[in-house]
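Posting this for the archive.
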Amino acid sequence: MRGKISDLLTAREASQLLNTNEKKVYSLAQEGKLPGTKVTGKWIFPRPELEEYLRLMAQQTLRRSFFESVIDRKVILACGSDDPVLCMAQGFFHKENPGYTFFSSSVGSGEGLRLLGEGFCHIAVCHLYDPDADDFNFPFLERYVGSTDTVTLVNLFYRRVGFAAKDREVTSFSELIDRNLRFVNRQSGSGIRALVDHLIETEGVPVSDIKGFEDEAFTHLDVINHISSDRADAGIVAEAVASGANLPFYTILEERFDMVVRKEIFFDKNIQVFVEFLRSERFRELLKNMRGYNSRDTGKIIYAKTKE
């Protein structure tokens, strides 16, 4: 502990600051939930750390109150990766379940997991790939949400992503450099950006040789808009988006696209209504009509790959 002697409080003074009784203060301190220490058999508490504890408790109460009010209103908040199917699904979901509303914010896979870990959304949607583990999303959970044991993963779909280009097909970053083409990147923390970084490392090409590498887009449509408006010659997008813009497309990878939910709310009515929607014929039909998508595991709980 740091600070002046005057910043050290007795148990009685700490109880007055926290507006609780001394017995509760002792209990919290002994459980390690309250900052304090014993000196010659008596508990003392640092005022600055107690004030920080109060601030954090107030934030958690506010966050919990907001979260519960959202659940009561039957609103589902999703944060994470951008995908055109999710945008289309919002309307279909509400039409089939008028008592519920699904909102999705495209902030990138990593940011979606972080926001889930902070308690600011019900669902994170992501497609982060770890080449060492040869698995999606699970290798990143500990970093963002603390533990794989606290969440459940449900597959949304698989999708093909790859290079979309203006005039003719691009198959690699080496080719892009050789042809002196301009690339439009995705934002840091997104699943596509993680794929870009992996491809560049695998090919062994210098980032400095990639024209436009620092030019970032936040959605697949934004990448297409860069190409269509002649601000870039190529980018990496979902096949359905490239197909819709009639751009040459070269497949790099089929991604597993999952939703991540905290186990403590997985069986709440609003989450289960959404999971049932994913398993419906209506959602499968939507995927069937989108080029490059596959519903083989849609609606199924996904488990991490086991090491052989």
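Residues 66-149+261-288+295-301 form a domain with the D-Maltodextrin-Binding Protein; domain 2 fold (CATH 3.40.190.10). The chain is about 40% helix and 25% strand.
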